[in-house]
């Protein structure tokens, strides 16, 4: 399994049928990590796709492989890349990193003047974010 086995796309209306599977996987992984991640509804995820604020990945055989979306606050002054999830059968192949790269580029294209940040408690995501040039800050100011 290598990164060239996957395609990474800006999600659109044709991907709404994957919203349920994505939410199910988010819930399973949140439970197994024991984190208090907010539960996202399939409607919420579908809406992100319709707004052009999400990235979806597929294996070349058509299996759903990963997802991430953009959240904005304060009139789009702040942008976060949220809800990163990789299908468990495709983990540790560099896919999360590739999805994060794509969603970061999409965030820059859509919101060139905003501050981009990510919220995470996970080591894998910390690593990816550091490589993208994010700087760690604490939750409080
Ligand atoms: C976290 C997650 C997105 C990583 O996906 P992935 O495709 O396996 O990640 P990558 O292969 O791109 O790995 C990126 C880096 O993190 C490391 N990594 C991956 N999973 C890891 C883990 N569980 N613990 C520690 N490091 C990990 C990799 O070794 C790699 O580091 P490297 O560049 O030094 O080799 C995936 O495990 C997942 O969907 N988990 C459940 C949901 C979740 O935790 N989402 C993040 C919420 S903030």
Describe the protein in words.
With 141 residues, the chain is of the alpha+beta class. The chain has one domain: Gcn5-related N-acetyltransferase (GNAT) (Aminopeptidase, 3-Layer(aba) Sandwich), CATH 3.40.630. 35% of the residues lie in helices and 23% in strands. It has four helices and five strands. The protein has helices at residues 19-33, 42-50, 95-110, 123-132, and strands spanning 6-10, 54-59, 64-73, 78-86, 115-117. It has a five-stranded mixed sheet, sandwiched between helices. Helix 1 crosses helix 2. The chain is globular, with a radius of gyration of 14 Å. Bound molecules: coenzyme A. The site of coenzyme A has 18 residues, from strand 4, helix 3 and helix 4.
CATH homologous superfamily grouping: Gcn5-related N-acetyltransferase (GNAT)
Secondary-structure content class: alpha+beta
Indicate the mean pLDDT.
92
- Helical amount: 25-40%
Unreliable stretches (pLDDT < 50, length at least 5) are none
Tally of domains: 1
Spatial order of the strands forming the largest sheet: 1-2-3-4-5
- Shape annotation: globular
**Count of alpha/pi helices:** 4
How far apart the termini lie comes to 42 Å
| Strand segment tally | 5
CATH architecture type: 3-Layer(aba) Sandwich
Estimate what percentage of residues fall within beta strands: 15-25%
